[in-house]
Amino acid sequence: MKNLKIIFETKAGSHLYGTNTISSDMDYRGVGVVPIKDMLDPFQEFNQFEDNESDDRIIYGLKKFMKLASDMNPNVCELLYANENSIIKLTKQGKILLDNRNLFLSQLARKTFFGYAVAQLKRIELHKNYLLNPPKNKPNREDYGLPAMPNFGLEKIVNMIHSPQETIAPEWREYALKEKSYRDASDNYQKYEQWKNNRNPKRALLEEKWGYDLKHSNHLYRLLTEGRELLETGNIVFPLRNVDKLKFILNGGMTYNDLMEEVNELNKLFENCKSNLPNKPNINKLKELYYKILGI
């Protein structure tokens, strides 16, 4: 992007975590600023720049980066703790940002890291179900005893299902339940087809071999331990302390049941961990930091 000045850039993903192999893709993340004149231009706003021609590279605008980091977005706030070996560019402005990383920290990490972990768990369970019980045929309306065209939109159908019984005729409630079942089945079939046709071939072979998604499992384990470390210590050490365990998971070293048993224990440790972080970040101090980095 014209006039973009990168103030901080680091390796990200597996090369930051320490779980990379010889075949791992390179991921880069960074922060950039543009001249004040461009920032004030009413016809453009720089949020982020993506370059995916050779590697996965995203440069966030300073404003967007600070917003995501202060929200404790796991994929962004962890970048503030990149080690020297991972950082590939750091200007004076970038150093000011990293030197004040503690200003972004808050108890919001409990919600975000756990939320991201749950999202990984749902993907694992969904994909495992696809492997064990794939949809056999595309659902059609006739199989559900439905007319060729729906009588109502989805919002109306949901309202009919949840309205008091005395307000909806039994035949219309039955129709609404059939319509909802058909739509759920259609949505599931479409997601299954997208998953089957778009997943990485190597990853697909591993899923079929081990019976569950190793990469999502690695991220699930990582998010619970990484988030707990941040809450308890106000820091994340890279490469991650449990990198050997994460590689063990990535290599299929655990059965699905054993993994879920450990994840349940990690959930308890995460929920009960003690933290001295503030409930929310001090927005005024973050504003001061923003102006200091920009030199205004």
Highlighted features:
single chain, 296 residues, alpha+beta, Beta Polymerase, domain 2, 3 domains, 5-stranded mixed beta sheet, 13 helices
Low-confidence blocks of residues: none
Q: What is the molecular shape?
A: globular
Query: How many separate domains?
Result: 3
Q: Which radius of gyration do the C-alpha atoms yield?
A: 24 Å
Number of strands: 5
Report the end-to-end length measured between terminal Cα atoms. Answer: 23 Å
Order of helices and strands: EHEHEEHHEHHHHHHHHH
**Helical stretch count?**
13
Tell me what portion of residues adopts beta-strand conformation. Answer: 5-15%
- Main β-sheet description: 5 strands, mixed
Do you know the CATH topology of the largest domain?
Beta Polymerase, domain 2
Instruction: Determine the mean pLDDT.
Output: 92
Relative helix content: 40-55%
Question: What is this entry, summarized?
Answer:
The protein is α+β, with helices and mostly antiparallel strands. The chain contains 13 helices and five strands. The chain has helices spanning 14-17, 36-39, 62-70, 74-77, 92-99, 108-132, 154-162, 170-198, 201-210, 214-233, 243-250, 256-272, 283-294, and strands at residues 5-12, 27-33, 48-51, 56-61, 87-90.
Give your account of this protein's structure:
The chain has 296 residues and is of the alpha+beta class. The chain folds into three domains: 5-106 and 279-294, Beta Polymerase, domain 2 (2-Layer Sandwich); 108-133 and 200-272, no CATH class; 141-198, no CATH class. Helix content is 54%, strand content 10%. It contains 13 helices and five strands. Strands 3-4-2-1-5 form a five-stranded mixed sheet. A hairpin with a 4-residue loop joins strand 3 and strand 4 (56-61). The two termini are 23 Å apart. The model has no long low-confidence stretch (mean pLDDT 92).
